[in-house]
Amino acid sequence: MKKRTVFLAMAVFFFFLFGIAEAFTFSDDFNDGNADGWISISGYPPGMYGNWRIENGIVVEDIGRDHFIFALRDHSFSDQVVETRVLYHDNGYAGITIWCQDENHSIQIYNRYHGGVAVLEKLPSGETMFEYPNENKTERIWRTMKIIANSSAGEIKVYLDDDYMFTHTVQANAPRSGRSGFNSGNAGGEFDDFKITDSIIPECSAATICGEPCSYGGITYNTVLIGTQCWFRENLNVGTMIGNFETPDNTAPTLNDPNSAQKWCFNDDPIYCVNEGGLYSWAEANGLPDSCNSILLQTPCSVPNNNQGICPSGWHVPSDAELYTLENYLTNPGETCDPDRNGWDCIGAGTKLVLGGSSGFDAIGAGSHETSGENSQFDKREPSINFWSSTPLREGYVYGRSMIYLYTPGDMVIRGLGRGVHGASIRCLANSTSLPTVITLTEFSAKAARDSIVLKWQTESEIDNAGFNVWRSKTKNGKYEMINKSLIPAKGSPTSGASYEFTDETRRRNCWYKLEDIDTNGISTFHGPVKAVPRWFK
Questions:
Q1: pLDDT tens digits for 333-379?
Q2: 3-state secondary structure 236-265
Q3: For position 20, what pLDDT does the model report?
């Protein structure tokens, strides 16, 4: 079954030439048995197109030559996120193709029968293959391959089964836009569940707007505002899986490198990490060597305020006090919530925190890992929910939170102790909360004039708005620079909007624009982009 969704940014169409920013998403599970909207592109030798077909809801190609492409026929992509399930045949290879303009211009990323992933840059001047060996994913099984492609930087991030593999930067003369789809060669492979979007989720950072998604380690996390705190809505899932009887090595995870962490997945099954997040020892979560689980009060293992740990930059592992702020905010009116308790309290908070609760925190029972040598085990999957804080109590023990949501008193939250060597879930908390400004924008457009472009925008209402900035870029997803010399003052109010106009004196071709509104607290929100071409180019 095919699905196509297009989201249009607010813009008004004039008779002049300009582009409207749009986000396109498409998915195909091929269960309808046809390949409508797909096209075969010649591989090697030229004029041979492969034996692409659909069998039992799966795309198959197995003709036995090289670099055959099966791509979306009617769409061209530059920036994009592509994901599909792939299975290479014995002595074959299979993967994702991006930026394919014709049989001589494409970028092909594929998983190979003799191990590792390769990137093929195919150009009229010849083919260049870059090999990226991988010792951990050589077994011939179905795998989920994901590509995040940034056209302006020429960067391609590659993931297998949600694990980051590498980042490849294409050569200067390589294509940066074109069709996307599959590639196959030698004995070929099989493909299923294709998904693509032409917008890239921004990296999680201090600039993340609460309520909007962000990306960390190739995984998208939703964010939610609860009181004055901004939280991930999903449990953290970064790093490499280790087995039940293994413990993290004594090397601290590298700051801002999500792939350097080590995690347990419930029952040694990576699908639990994908769906529910990883289980981390206290030291691992806080970016410390494993030995700190035993000497966590000593100076080498001390944890500062807003300790980033294995969270992204601008985010941190919450402290005991910050978890109390969360549960106290959600406690029913008139009920107590003791910050120093050892046990149950904070009636109402538990119900609001669990999946489907009114807070949007959506805590789930991901289980825990009890680390005890040959007696190690996964436990407490249901009905218990367990989170670490960054706050130690005494040597070997750390404060955490649990919710036992199927039993009375399941509407409360336990504040208790856990051994740092055990594995529990982690939620990241923003160092500061960035909120979108309260601007209702009804129009943002670009109109070509002679040797200039006139931008106009209309607001319906403005709350705490200080003013606007206009940003320009040569490409839709490239680097934008502010072009107004000073803030364009706000003219609207909470009950009435205003009209604005700004003229960009430029003779540049293909100008893209974003509009930034800034509130009285210095927090900004971007709108657009829109595109215009100066009239002299027509």
A1: 999 999 999 888 999 999 999 988 999 999 988 889 998 888 889 98
A2: CCCCEEECCCCCCCCCCCCCCCHHHCEEEC
A3: 31
* Rounded distance between C-alpha atoms, residue 430 and residue 327, angstroms: 16
Tell me the backbone φ, ψ of residue 70, rounded to 5 degrees: -130, 110
Give the tokens for residue 521.
């607290």
Q: Are 287 and 253 contacting, i.e. CB atoms less than 8 angstroms apart? A: yes
Q: Is 24 part of a structural domain of the chain? A: no
Mean pLDDT of the chain: 86
Q: Where are the alpha helices (DSSP H) in 153-294?
A: 270-276, 282-285
Tokens of 430: 């923003």
Rounded Cα distance, 122 and 119, in Å:
10
Same domain, 49 and 151: yes
Q: Is 462 helix (H, G, I), strand (E, B) or coil?
A: strand
Instruction: Give the global pTM.
Output: 0.61
On whether residue 27 sits in a domain, the answer given is no
Give the single-character DSSP code of 537: G
Cα–Cα separations (whole angstroms), residue 55 to 31, 34, 96, 314: 9, 9, 19, 47
Phi, psi of 85, deg, nearest 5: -95, 135
3-class state of residue 163 by DSSP: strand
In a 3-state reduction of DSSP, which class is residue 511?
strand
What size, in residues, is the chain? 538
Tokens found for residue 165: 């593999």
- Is residue 337 located within the same domain as residue 477? no
* Chain segment 72-100, per-residue pLDDT in tens: 988 888 889 999 999 999 888 999 999 99
Q: Please give the backbone phi and psi of residue 76, each rounded to the nearest 5 degrees, phi first.
A: -115, 140
Give yes or no for a contact between 122 and 100, defined as CB atoms under 8 angstroms apart: no
CA dihedral sign of residues 236, 237, 243, 244? positive
Return the closest-CA partner of residue 186 out of 92, 120, 49.
92
**Could you list the residue range(s) of the whole structural domain that residue 107 is in?**
33-197
Shared-domain flag, residues 410 and 490: no
pLDDT below 70 — which residues of the chain? Answer: 1-23, 135-136, 382-383, 404-410, 435-438, 509, 533-538
Cis peptide upstream of residue 383 (ω within 30 degrees of 0): yes
| Geometric angle at alpha carbon 204, from 203 and 205, rounded to 5° | 110
Express each pLDDT in 198-207 by its tens digit.
Answer: 877 888 998 8
- Output the CA–CA distances (angstroms, integers) from residue 494 to 86, 461, 462, 524, in the order listed: 52, 5, 5, 17
Residue 30: both structure tokens together: 């091929």
d(CA 232, CA 160): 23
Structure tokens at 495: 């009950």
Give the pLDDT score at 435.
65
Burial category of 345 from C-beta neighbours within 10 Å (exposed 0-12, middle 13-18, buried 19 and up): buried
In a domain, 230, yes or no: yes
Please report, for the domain that includes residue 78, its CATH number.
Answer: 2.60.120.560
